[in-house]
Design a protein that fits this description.
alpha/beta; five-stranded parallel beta sheet; 223 residues
């Protein structure tokens, strides 16, 4: 979740994605810039795709894993519906693996865990239908730390994230995906908040946070 281009504001709209009604919030110029670039960079069958919002967008995964097969398809401020809207760019190439991380922006837009999970399941079903050979990894929505006071739309939403993650585990089970719980390495065990040493705004990761994240999933990337 990023506020690049936030002066535009986020307007709620509806989009039909593969025949399903999925909630999409107005994409800003940055979203369209990235989508237009991704159109020119096709995904191949040996690629490993990291798909999500700004937390993914900010990661230099090919360098962190020393693997040029890794393609970053994160876009700042994206939501579940936005990822679904551009999913064809990824599944049309039938990549080897997809690592999903999305949902925190939907939480900030006052959607319930159930509403988010319903939209999430629709695009997971589409991945399975259009690219059945792809190995799919559903990563838990990461913890946040509202002590920084940075993102007022996430204030009081701390309980929604674990509720959503519980629903994501069920989606992973139903669609033969691997669920990866990132909380043990990113959250303070006493409070459940994102560790202060991993962030400078309570939401996005600093270098140490990316290092901890990538170390936690390395076995799945390299398997």
């Amino acid at each position: 979740m990023s506020w690049r281009g936030s002066y535009i504001g986020f307007m709620m709209a509806a989009a039909l994605v593969s025949g399903c009604q999925i909630q999409v919030f107005g994409q800003n110029e940055y979203w369209h810039q990235r989508v237009s670039l991704f159109e020119l960079l096709p995904i191949g069958e040996e690629d490993i795709v990291f798909l999500g919002n700004s937390i993914t967008d900010g990661g230099e995964f090919a360098e962190l894993f020393d693997d040029n097969r890794i393609k970053n398809r994160g876009i700042s401020s994206d939501v579940v519906g936005g990822v679904a809207k551009r999913l064809g760019q990824v599944v049309s190439g039938h990549p080897k693996k997809i690592f999903l991380l999305v949902g925190i922006n939907d939480v900030s837009h006052n959607l319930s865990a159930g509403e988010i999970a319903a939209d999430y399941e629709r695009f997971v079903e589409r991945i399975r239908r259009e690219s059945p050979s792809t190995r799919l990894y559903i990563q838990s929505v990461m913890p946040i730390n509202n002590d920084f006071g940075r993102y007022r739309n996430l204030k009081g939403k701390e309980k929604v994230i674990p509720e959503l993650n519980t629903l994501l585990t069920g989606i992973a089970d139903r669609y033969d995906a691997v669920y990866i719980d990132l909380w043990p390495i990113l959250a303070e065990p006493e409070t459940g908040k994102l560790r202060r040493e991993f962030t400078n705004d309570g939401l996005h990761l600093m270098g140490k946070g990316y290092r901890a994240w990538t170390q936690a999933i390395e076995k799945y990337v390299k398997d």
